[in-house]
Model the fold of this input.
Amino acid sequence: MRLGIMQPYFFPYPGHFALIANVDEWVVFDITQYTPKSWISRNRVLHPSQGANWINVPLSNSSISIKIHEARVLDLAAAERTTLGKLSHYRRRAPFARQVEEVVKTAFASAGNRNSLVDLNVAGLDAVCAYLGLAFRRRICSELSLPLPDNLGAGEWAPTIAGLLGAKTYVNPYGGRELFDRKTFEKHGVALEFLKASDFVYETKELEFIPNLSILDALMWNSPDVVREALTSIATVVSAADAPE
Done:
């Protein structure tokens, strides 16, 4: 089993979904410290005039003193309205605007009644993967009751979790290669690989193309088939032994 482990981001960039497309199972890593003003609670789409526009999900308890799974959305309905409002200018430009709005609505409707930011972000991943036809077998780390040792270092969480879940291979984004030692993974019986994802470049009509915006922007301009194919074409998986430090 090939495993991916990532924090729950708010409608993350295409490379995140390229990683999902290259693993068999996914662990939503929500048991460490919450980071305010991070990709966990916000992302970017195109601004109607120029540049990028932030979409933020305000929390009722934003603080570094909480764990990610403890983060609570201040007002889900208001966050949905804001998100759709930041996307409304796509209607007069992008061919798939209405379909993407429905993906967003599905995510918010599926977020449950706990006002949990993790629930919302996971619902977003579910909705996007369903729209793209991507298999997405995921588990929530805070719900697994794994016997994790205290005081694990930053590079020890992934090999420990992967070993406990019986993964044969762990795949991480290439940018995080300096964090991990393949020998640590080997001690847990897990092979370490990295995914290189190049930019997904596409036409945005009169607006300036900006790489690595939220997946929502890519979906606005491209059919699900085109995006799904791109997630494969932009990604290359290499073993840790072949990844220079």
Summary: The mean pLDDT is 96. The chain has one domain: 2-242. The beta strands are 2-6, 25-28, 42-46, 52-56, 138-140, 169-173, 191-197, 235-239.
